[in-house]
Specification:
binds beta-D-fructofuranose; 34 strands; mainly beta; 482 residues; six-stranded mixed β-sheet
């Protein structure tokens, strides 16, 4: 029996999987399975971890709990690909099987250096020896653990590089999710934290050899944003330093920060050595299901982001949970920085999924019916003032008085509407899968990622006063996974 708060060994996992073949087959035959997104074979998925490209192969790991639909235990599942179209799923890479990570191999990242992959992650331990632990200020251990791998499949020993006594004073025991960045021959590690005033912050540690780490500095926002920053990722993009992080519990402000927890990008001034400051904060995604993204630079120098298409603590649900699985990863997205804005677009590799192509405008579109579930749609709206786009009777996008709104109340399993104010609407790209939508607006400066659970057939209907609108529709095939 696999139990919560006990170590999980590879042999137990293998035995469990061999005893649950029938359940795995049932999950696999669920019509709500996605066609071109990564999902758990069974059970629960959350954050992407350890993203890297090594000797041409992309390695994608993620937080995985095959045993439990609510994700109580955390393993690192492992998937590889060379082209983001053909994937191979391997067994889990990392189990919470040692005394330094007994209650969860929590999130972490990869850092390729001198032809080796260095993984850093949080080994989570919950203490049970006293009854009055609040698990914020006491009762938790968050170990920073280092692994070295020469292939992405095997590693030597789990090495504890920092424990609770190595972290600075002034913070709660919520310290986790290490990610590395190099600056002028120094290697820095960022970790997310909640301070003693219940404000989210970034802790920065420094090392020359990846083994010995010292606290370097802490970065706060001027006005508090959220009580805890999860999954921080500090990186350089086209000469600009950016921090992506997930502030938990940011209060809703108008149409902004509408989810229980948020995900933001921050434009950062300065250098780590001399001090950083936050210049601008922007929501990374405005949909219902987006959290804990991670970026990496591939061998072509592209900055690629993958997120968790899910969110913790939401009051809306995934009906698939009743049938043994929930959550997925987003499409891999290419990041670019231009004129003070971060843009996200699905990787160009995904064009290989395109099948049939239709080009239409509002009039010809309404004469044809479009019932595909899996498609890519590009709308060139050319500074449109008003638009209504229906993806089915249950999924409606409107744009009026600068407000762009997605309404999926009728098929959202508790999800309702999400909005953003735009100066102008220039273009929209929609990636629709069986039970997900990713909507990229204005070249990807705003994105809405959400799960959907449609009960009505799909359609594409567009109403706009703008006569120059052109629509490209591509039906999409499934990716392949072995
Ligand atoms: C974010 C998160 C991380 C943590 C992991 C545990 O979703 O809470 O902070 O490391 O999930 O699965």
């Amino acid at each position: 029996m696999i139990k919560k708060y006990h170590p999980v060994y590879q042999s137990e996992y293998e035995q469990w999987i061999s005893q649950h073949k029938k359940e795995i087959e049932e999950v696999n035959s669920d019509p709500r399975r996605l066609h071109y997104h990564l999902m758990p074979r069974i059970g629960w998925l959350n954050d992407p971890n350890g993203l890297c490209q090594y000797h041409g192969v992309y390695h994608i790991y993620y937080q995985y709990d095959p045993f439990d639909i609510n994700g109580e235990l955390k393993l690192w599942q492992h998937v590889t690909t060379k082209d983001f179209i053909h994937y191979e799923e391997h067994g889990p890479f990392l189990f919470p099987d040692s005394e330094i990570d007994t209650h969860g191999a929590y999130s972490g990242s990869a850092f390729v250096k001198d032809d080796q992959i260095h993984f850093f992650y949080t080994g989570n331990i919950k203490l049970f020896d006293k009854e009055d632990y609040d698990y914020i200020h006491c009762g938790r251990v968050a170990n920073t653990i280092h692994l070295v791998s020469k292939d992405g499949f095997h590693f030597d020993q789990k090495q504890l590089v920092m424990g609770m006594s190595d972290y600075p004073q002034g913070f709660t025991q919520h310290i986790r999710d290490p990610k590395l960045i190099e600056e002028n021959d120094m290697i820095y590690m960022v970790q997310g934290t909640r301070d003693l005033k219940d404000q989210g912050a970034l802790l920065i540690f420094a090392s020359k050899d990846l083994k010995h780490w010292q606290f370097h500095s802490c970065l706060h926002s001027e006005e508090p944003i959220g009580y805890m920053w999860e999954c921080p990722d500090l990186f350089d993009l086209q000469g600009q330093k950016l921090l992506i992080t997930c502030p938990q519990g940011v209060e809703t402000q108008g149409v902004d920060y509408a989810n229980v927890h948020s995900c933001t990008w921050m434009q950062i001034d300065g250098t780590i050595a001399d001090g950083l400051s936050i210049k601008k904060i922007h929501q990374l995604d405005r949909g219902f299901d987006f959290y804990a993204p991670q970026t990496f630079e591939d061998e072509q120098g592209r900055r690629i982001l993958i997120g968790w298409m899910g969110i913790p603590d939401a009051d809306y649900t995934n009906p698939t949970a009743k049938d043994g699985w929930q959550h997925a990863l987003t499409l891999p997205r290419l990041l670019t920085w231009k004129d003070g804005m971060l843009y996200q677009q699905p990787l160009p590799e995904l064009q290989q999924l395109r099948k049939e192509h239709d080009e239409c405008n509002e009039d010809t579109l309404n004469a044809m019916s479009y019932a595909e579930e899996c498609y890519e749609m590009a709308i060139h709206a050319d500074s449109c003032n008003q638009m209504k786009l229906q993806l089915s009777d249950e999924m409606i996008i409107t744009y009026q008085d600068h407000l762009f709104t997605l309404d999926i109340t009728a098929c959202g399993s508790g999800r309702t509407t999400r909005s953003v104010y735009l100066d102008t609407l220039k273009n929209i790209r929609v990636f629709s899968d069986t039970t997900s939508l990713e909507i990229f607006i204005n070249d990807g400066s705003e994105v809405f990622t959400t799960r959907i659970y449609p009960t009505q057939p799909r359609c594409v209907k567009l109403y706009t006063e703008n006569k120059n609108t052109v629509i490209h529709l591509y039906s999409l095939s499934a990716h392949q996974i072995n």
